[in-house]
């Protein structure tokens, strides 16, 4: 397995086309790396394609996929995985991550759906992740996903997640907002969940905002500012596992870049708070 020697550090931002030109023109100093969904960029040509290529030549990038559908009963789309590999190589992308969920069943479902928390599903999903890693010739990072209905389960969410990443021998994309959202919706302690994560496998983390539908029902939208409990979880994660690369996600209700930069700066401030006393967690 080829683990790239290059890695990202610091605080990152999910790149969106709506503010790509601003990033190109200003090169904000607080942003250490960028993340894109490869499905949204792989087929772009023309002016936008050239602008994107210019950015990947200047800045470190990672990829967070949307449609691998690792838990689907459909056959693994190996043509798509090879297209991902070409995209990573073309742009010297440092890491590829995906959700522990599925989004297809005899066609695309346009939603990320939960996988049953069973031993059989652990074996099935882990084998598919291993196949993806074999094709890419590098490890991928799997994200703990948000979910709203509890599927068939023999295992708890954290038992299922840990069993998959251990058996697949993959890395982890730690999503702090998803932990918080799931803890409210499904009634568990987010700190206990965090403490049970395999910290040695964390490649990087996501922080994001959510929508409060009811006091006990949150929706993971990436469309609002990050709330204090999620910031607190991020600090706890650094205290537990060391400082690792952390990225701000914002997909809807996207504000001015200066507002996004203020949240990226908060990530950097938290990293600096813990950097002096804790080791830096690096992927590679």
Characterise the protein shown here:
- It is a single chain.
- With 284 residues, the chain is of the alpha/beta class.
- The chain has a single domain (11-275), classed as Divalent-metal-dependent TIM barrel enzymes (TIM Barrel).
- The protein has helices at residues 20-26, 46-58, 78-91, 119-136, 157-168, 176-186, 190-195, 228-241, 257-275; strands spanning 11-14, 33-36, 61-64, 96-99, 102-104, 108-113, 141-143, 171-175, 202-207, 211-214, 217-219, 246-248.
- The strands form three sheets. Strands 1-2-3-4-7-8-9-12 form an eight-stranded parallel barrel. It has a two-stranded antiparallel sheet with strand order 5-6. A two-stranded antiparallel ribbon has the order 10-11.
- Strand 10 and strand 11 (217-219) form a beta hairpin.
- It is globular and about 50 Å long.
- The N and C termini lie close together (12 Å).
Backbone CA Rg: 18 Å
Mean pLDDT: 91
Succession of helices and strands: EHEHEHEEEHEHEHHEEEHEH
Q: How many domains make up the coordinates?
A: 1
| Total of DSSP H or I helical runs spanning 4+ residues | 9
Strand order of the largest sheet: 1-2-3-4-7-8-9-12
Assembly of the depicted chains: single chain
Beta-strand content estimate: 15-25%
Give the termini separation. 12 Å
Question: Which fold name corresponds to the CATH topology?
Answer: TIM Barrel
Largest sheet, strands/sense/barrel = 8 strands, parallel, barrel
Q: What is the percent of helical residues? A: 40-55%
Taking pLDDT < 50 over at least 5 consecutive residues as the criterion, the unreliable ranges are 1-6
Total DSSP E strands: 12
Second rung of CATH, namely the architecture = Alpha-Beta Barrel
What form results from the Cα inertia axes?
globular
What CATH first level would be assigned?
Answer: Alpha Beta
Structural class, from secondary structure content? alpha/beta
The fourth-level CATH homologous superfamily is: Divalent-metal-dependent TIM barrel enzymes
